[in-house]
C-alpha cells in the first residue's frame, strides 16, 4: 500500500467513524439531527476522497468523467426531488426506492468488476464468493424493493399475490441461482454471472409478491438489511473499508429492525415470507359478538366523554394515516390538553407501513415526541385511563391475541380493554388484516363511532369546542 | 487465506457488532428516521460506483458506470435530505405560534437584519 492510497484508506476510516458516531447520536430525538449531520459530513469526506483518488489516478477517460458526472448529477437531482416532495405517508415507498437503487448500484459494482477482470483471465477464488454474494443479494434487493414500493404506492395490489405453483417457481429460481453460483466458483464465466443476476431479479419479484400490506414493516426492514449486506460485499470486491463498515452497519440495523417487527407480530420471518396471512384456508369464525352487542355513539356523546376525562390515550393505526387524519387528531389532542386533560399516544411497533412510521406522521402534525409512548411503556397506564380513543387500529387492540387458538394469538397487543371506557373510530365493521373479529368491539365499555377518521376528528374537535364555550 | 481477506473480514465483523450495539439503543420513535439514515449511509456505494470510472474504457463500462453512479447518487442525496426533513419535525414541545410571528427568524439576513430583529423584540417586550 503506497503512502497515497494509504492516506485515502485512512480518510475512508474517518468517514466510517462518522457513520458510527452519527448512528450513536440517533439514540435520542434531541441529538438525532446532529447525528444525521455528522454522518453526512462523513459522507462528504468520503466523496471528496474518492474524487481525489480518481484525479490522482489519472486513468479516467474524458468520456468516463462525463459519464460519472452526468450520472451523479442526474441521480442527485432525482434523489433531491424525491426527498423534498415526498409525503410522510409515502415514506415507506421512498425508503424502499432507496433500498432498491442502493442494492442495484452495489450489484453493478460487482458485475463491472467481473467484466473488467475477464480480460485478465477472469475472477476466481475468494473474490468470486463476494462477487456472487453481492450480485445475488443486490439483485434480489433491487427487484424486491421495486415490487415493495409498487405495492405501497398502490401500483400493484396490496393484497398478497399468490398463484398456483408460485412456491415451486421460487424454489426453482433459488436452485438456478445457487447452482450457477456454485459453478462460478470453479469456472470464470460472465454469461453464468448474468444468469445469476436474472434468477436473483426474478426471485426478488417472486419473494415480495405474496406479502401483504400489513407485513410491509418486516419486508422493508429485511430489504434494508439486504442492501447493507450487498454494499458490504461490494466493499470486499473492490477492497474498500468504507463500504465494508457502512454495509455492515446497515445490515445490523436492518437485521435488528426485522427481528423487532417480526416479534411485534409474533410471526416468524419464514412465515411472513411464505406469505398469505388471512388468505389461506383458515376459516373465519362467524361473528362471535353479533351486531346486537355493538354500541354506536354519536359525535356529541363521544365529545362529552373525552371532554370530562382526566386522562386520554389515543391509539392510532394505519387507518389514521390512510385517512390523512394525523393533523386532525393532533388538533383534537390540543383541544383536550387546553382543558388540562392528560393526552398521550400509544404506538404499537407495527402501526403504519414501516418501523416507526406512525411516530413520523404524528411528529409532522406537531405532536411533541414525549407524548408518543411505546407499547411497554404505555400498557400499564391503560388501567388508569378514562378514555382510550382507538383510531384506525384493529388487530393490535384485539384481546383475542392473549388466548391461544386465533390467527393473532401471542401477538403483543396494546391493553386498550383495560381503560375505563373505549371509543373506537372506524368506518365500518370490517375486519383487520388478520381477517378476524375484534373482541374489543363487543366489550361493554366500548362505543363505536362509525365515521371516516378525518371527518370524525373534525367533528369531535368541533363538538368539544362547543361544549367548552 | 490472504492477509487482506482476514483484515477485511475482521473489519466487517467488528462493524457488524458495533452496529448491533449502537442501533439496539435507538428508541422506536426514531425507527423510521433510523432506517432512512442507514439508507443514506449505504449510499457510500457511490464511492464504488465512481471507482468504476478508473478502468472503464468501453461502452459497457460507461453504461454501468452511469447507471451505478446515478443509482448511488440518488440514494445518498435523497437519503440525507429526507432524514433531515423528518428529524426536523421531532419537537419536544408543540411550537408556540405567537413566538414564531414575533421572531420572523426566517427573513433575517445580515447584520442589519439582526439589529432590526433585536429592536423588534425589545419593542414587543416593552
What does this structure look like?
The complex is a heterodimer of chains A (469) and B (126). Chain A has helices at 3-25, 32-57, 62-85, 91-118, 126-153, 166-186, 190-208, 216-238, 241-264, 269-274, 299-307, 318-322, 326-338, 357-364, 375-378, 453-468, and strands at residues 311-316, 342-347, 372-374, 387-391, 421-426, 446-450. Chain A is of the alpha/beta class and 469 residues long. Chain A has 3 domains: 1-85; 90-277, no CATH class; 291-468, TPP-binding domain (Rossmann fold, 3-Layer(aba) Sandwich). Chain A has a 6-stranded parallel β-sheet. In chain A, helix 5 packs parallel to helix 7 and helix 6 (166-186) runs antiparallel to helix 7 (190-208). Chain A is elongated and about 80 Å long. In chain B, 74% of the residues lie in helices and 0% in strands. In chain B, helix 2 packs antiparallel against helix 4 (59-89) and helix 3 runs antiparallel to helix 4. The interface between A and B is large, with 118 and 85 residues.
Distance between the termini of chain A: 77 Å
Structural class of chain A: alpha/beta
Q: Structural class given helices, strands, pairing of chain B?
A: mainly alpha
- Report the sheet with the most strands of chain A, covering strand number, pairing sense and barrel closure: 6 strands, parallel
Number of β-strand runs of chain A: 6
Query: How are strands sequenced across the largest beta sheet of chain A?
Result: 3-2-1-4-5-6
Amino acid at each position: 500500500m503506497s503512502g497515497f492510497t494509504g492516506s485515502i484508506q485512512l480518510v475512508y476510516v474517518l468517514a466510517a467513524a462518522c457513520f458510527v458516531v452519527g448512528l450513536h447520536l440517533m439514540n435520542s430525538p434531541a441529538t438525532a439531527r446532529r447525528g444525521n449531520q455528522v454522518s453526512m459530513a462523513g459522507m462528504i469526506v468520503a466523496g471528496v476522497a474518492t474524487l481525489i483518488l480518481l484525479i490522482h489516478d489519472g486513468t479516467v477517460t474524458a468520456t468516463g468523467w462525463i459519464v460519472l458526472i452526468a450520472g451523479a448529477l442526474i441521480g442527485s437531482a432525482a434523489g433531491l426531488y424525491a426527498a423534498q416532495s415526498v409525503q410522510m405517508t409515502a415514506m415507506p415507498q421512498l425508503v424502499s426506492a432507496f433500498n432498491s437503487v442502493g442494492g442495484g448500484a452495489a450489484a453493478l459494482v460487482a458485475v463491472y468488476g467481473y467484466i473488467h477482470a475477464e480480460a485478465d483471465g477472469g475472477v476466481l477464488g475468494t473474490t468470486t464468493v463476494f462477487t456472487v454474494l453481492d450480485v445475488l443479494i443486490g439483485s434480489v434487493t433491487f427487484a424486491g424493493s421495486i415490487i415493495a414500493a409498487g405495492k405501497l404506492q398502490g401500483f400493484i395490489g396490496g393484497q398478497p399475490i399468490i398463484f398456483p405453483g408460485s412456491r415451486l417457481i421460487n424454489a426453482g429460481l433459488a436452485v438456478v441461482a445457487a447452482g450457477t453460483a456454485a459453478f462460478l466458483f470453479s469456472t470464470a464465466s460472465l454469461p453464468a454471472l448474468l444468469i445469476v443476476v436474472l434468477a436473483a431479479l426474478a426471485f426478488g419479484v417472486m419473494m415480495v409478491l405474496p406479502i401483504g400490506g400489513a407485513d410491509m414493516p418486516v419486508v422493508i426492514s429485511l430489504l434494508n438489511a439486504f442492501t447493507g449486506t450487498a454494499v458490504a460485499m461490494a466493499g470486499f470486491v473492490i477492497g474498500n473499508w468504507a463500504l465494508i463498515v457502512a454495509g455492515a452497519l446497515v445490515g445490523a440495523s436492518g437485521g435488528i429492525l426485522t427481528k423487532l417487527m417480526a416479534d411485534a407480530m409474533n410471526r416468524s420471518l419464514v412465515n411472513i415470507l411464505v406469505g398469505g396471512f388471512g388468505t389461506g384456508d383458515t376459516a373465519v369464525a362467524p361473528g362471535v359478538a353479533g351486531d346486537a352487542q355493538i354500541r354506536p355513539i354519536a359525535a356529541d356523546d363521544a365529545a362529552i366523554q373525552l371532554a370530562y376525562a382526566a386522562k386520554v390515550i389515543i391509539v392510532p393505526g394505519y387507518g389514521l394515516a390512510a385517512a390523512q387524519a394525523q393533523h386532525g387528531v393532533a388538533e383534537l389532542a390540543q383541544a383536550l390538553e387546553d382543558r388540562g386533560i392528560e393526552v398521550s399516544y400509544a404506538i404499537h411497533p407495527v402501526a403504519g407501513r414501516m418501523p416507526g412510521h406512525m411516530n413520523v406522521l404524528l411528529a409532522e402534525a406537531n405532536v411533541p415526541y414525549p407524548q408518543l409512548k411505546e407499547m411497554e411503556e404505555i400498557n400499564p397506564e391503560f388501567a388508569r385511563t378514562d378514555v382510550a380513543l382507538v383510531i384506525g387500529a384493529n388487530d393490535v387492540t384485539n384481546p383475542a391475541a392473549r388466548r391461544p387458538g386465533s390467527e393473532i394469538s401471542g401477538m403483543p397487543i396494546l391493553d386498550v380493554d383495560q381503560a375505563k371506557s373505549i371509543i373506537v373510530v372506524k368506518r365500518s365493521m370490517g375486519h383487520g388484516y388478520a381477517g378476524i373479529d375484534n373482541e374489543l368491539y363487543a366489550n361493554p365499555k366500548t362505543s363505536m363511532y362509525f365515521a371516516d377518521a378525518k371527518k370524525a376528528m373534525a367533528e369531535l374537535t368541533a363538538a368539544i369546542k362547543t361544549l367548552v364555550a | 487465506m490472504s492477509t487482506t481477506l482476514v483484515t477485511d473480514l475482521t473489519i466487517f465483523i467488528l462493524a457488524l457488532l458495533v452496529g448491533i450495539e449502537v442501533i439496539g439503543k435507538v428508541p422506536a420513535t426514531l425507527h423510521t428516521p433510523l432506517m432512512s439514515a442507514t439508507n443514506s449511509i449505504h449510499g457510500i456505494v457511490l464511492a464504488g460506483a465512481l471507482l468504476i470510472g478508473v478502468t472503464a474504457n468501453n461502452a459497457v463500462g460507461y453504461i454501468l458506470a452511469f447507471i451505478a453512479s446515478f443509482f448511488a447518487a440518488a440514494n445518498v442525496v435523497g437519503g440525507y435530505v429526507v432524514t433531515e426533513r423528518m428529524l426536523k419535525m421531532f419537537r419536544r414541545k408543540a411550537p408556540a405560534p405567537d413566538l414564531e410571528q414575533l421572531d420572523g427568524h426566517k427573513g433575517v439576513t445580515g447584520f442589519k437584519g439582526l439589529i432590526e430583529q433585536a429592536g423588534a423584540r425589545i419593542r414587543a417586550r416593552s
